[in-house]
Amino acid sequence: MDVSGRRLAKARLPEGVAGMARLHAIVGELAGDDADEVEVLVGIETDRGPWVAALVAAGYTVLVVNPLQAARFRDRLGVSGAKSDAGDAHVLADMARTHSHELRAVAGDTPQVQAVKVVARTHKTLIWERTRHTQRLRHALRDYFPAALEAFEDLDAADTLELLAKAPAPAQAARLTIGQISAALKRARRKNVADKAAAIQSVLRAEHLGQPEVVTGAYAASVQALIAVLNVLNAQVKTLQGQVEEHFGQHPAAEIVLSQPGLGQVLGARVLAEFGDDPTRYASAKARKNYAGTSPITRASGRKKAALARFVHNDRLIDALLTQAFSALGRSPGARAYYDRQRARGCGHNAALRQLANRLVGILHGCLKTGTLYDEATAWSHHAESLAA
């Protein structure tokens, strides 16, 4: 499409090198002898992958369009509700032509932070999967073996999985000896092994409601399968954590990120990975806060005006930032005082935590922009002066 909106060419390109070569050929043919003076804008609904990398490497200006933005723009061009790949391509091309100044170009992140992002996202995904499988295990035990839920506090812990794998049925669990239970607790490095082993055995040998033997056998087989999956997930979560720490430790900004209150190796890696390290991506602290989803949105109409929480955001980033804010309450006096002030104003816990996370994002932005480590007095001096006044 040219600057006037006239369609110059249309093609369905195959994936891989062949598709990219075909695209270059089409663009080269249209540009003719003025190829060096022609600017090519590309609208695309993703900011990662081989195609995006190849487009950026070719010198094209690649503009990322959120699918929600594309859907809203599509409604401007037609109200019939029709949707097709060809129609979506037309919408993206038209958006790149008319709204390039309002769209975000693909961030120029370094390969180092891209590597951190890959391992950090996979690590978090495995943790989410472990939580899902733990809940499935809990539901199964509740249906046929409620004594296990009373005996074991952490269903995904190594000692719990070992004992459940050895005795997945109530009758088998009742025959576990103190020695067997103690050995599992010792391997998991539990404290007060003797008392805990006695308590577990007592609960497992008490009377509880159950299921018929054939049903119990079916549940036991299902539970053993879930336990096998959880054992693999536990091992891989531990392995990926080492990869996260290794890649994050090699990044130049790691020291600044780790100086922030509430951020450790894993959480810091997630925050850095989701924000990226392109120094030009965020024009201001407000822009970073808006991307993080911690800053409120304003809805104003006539005399009505309300500030609301953002519900469209990067789920992985907001999860990491809220976790950081909660952790910072016990590590930063300034963060704790800021949170307490929000609660005193009538904010609930989640709202106050989100506002604290928003403030911490601004502090992180300033530290990264100036290349300085976090300083408690500097970070909260403005709020301390306001409170004193």
From TrEMBL:
UniProt xrefs under PANTHER family = PUTATIVE TRANSPOSASE FOR IS117-RELATED, TRANSPOSASE FOR INSERTION SEQUENCE ELEMENT IS1111A
- Its recorded name reads Transposase IS116/IS110/IS902 family protein
Instruction: Give all residue intervals belonging to the Transposase IS110-like N-terminal domain.
Output: 1-146
| GO biological process entries | DNA transposition
Q: Which residues form the Transposase IS116/IS110/IS902 C-terminal domain?
A: 255-339
Report the InterPro entries cross-referenced here: Transp_IS110-like_N, Transpos_IS110, Transposase_20
GO MF annotations for this entry? DNA binding; transposase activity
